[in-house]
Amino acid sequence: MKLFGHYDSGHALKVKFFLDWLNIDHEYELVDIYSKREDRSTEFLTASKFAEVPTLIDDNNYYTQSNAILVYLAEKFAVFHNDKHKQENLQWLVWEANKIGLCLPQLRCHDRLTDKNPNFKLSQGAYDWLIHRYRHDVNVLDNELRNQKFILGEQVSPADFSLSAYLLYADEINNIEVPKNVAHWLDRMRNLNGWQSPYTMLA
């Protein structure tokens, strides 16, 4: 099994952290996501339909899109308890992609990565809209976590790795706050086996 990723990708962080938490032996390769796509390795471009990280190779099959990879791994390693548990995870994985996974990556790129890529700079209108979206969505998440340790209860699940990934970079993003219940949950994520800073884990 081989994973391609980069330390600036919260999407890659989801998968790498999940693999490390599961203690699954795998090879990891850093992809320069700031390079021209045609300059990336042939192995990566063959495996990655969209030339994006994360990309996973397993048994000569190729997997892309972070939440889809999480589902694949959770099924392969029997992480889902039953069909109900799988469905509950899927609901949060889809929610994340359209909520936290929409606004936070854009805001972080604008605040931290415009020196590497000026195209990441947002218009003021887009920036304000994303801030508004984040504040609404993170409060939904905070309310869900008010009486439980993880998103589905007492035990961590694949959805937690997805939902937490870009929030684990929150201190790099201007003009946002992390509410109390979310902050405590992120601390619990950092205390899981396999946790390291993204800049170490994905180096």
Topology overview:
Layout: E1 2-5, H1 10-22, E2 27-30, H2 42-47, E3 55-58, E4 61-64, H3 66-76, H4 83-98, H5 100-112, H6 124-144, H7 158-164, H8 180-190, H9 198-201
Parallel strand pairs: 1-2
Antiparallel strand pairs: 1-3, 3-4
Helix pairs in contact: 1-3, 1-7, 4-5, 4-7, 5-6
How would you characterize the overall build of this protein?
This protein is an alpha+beta fold and 203 residues long. The chain folds into two domains: 2-78 and 196-201, 3-Layer(aba) Sandwich (Glutaredoxin), CATH 3.40.30.10; 83-190, Glutathione S-transferase Yfyf (Class Pi), Chain A, domain 2 (Up-down Bundle), CATH 1.20.1050. Helix content is 50%, strand content 8%. Strands 2-1-3-4 form a four-stranded mixed sheet, covered by helices on one side. Strand 3 (55-58) and strand 4 (61-64) form a beta hairpin. The protein is globular, with a radius of gyration of 17 Å. The two termini are 18 Å apart. The model has no long low-confidence stretch (mean pLDDT 97).
Summarize the structure.
By secondary structure, the protein is of the alpha+beta class.
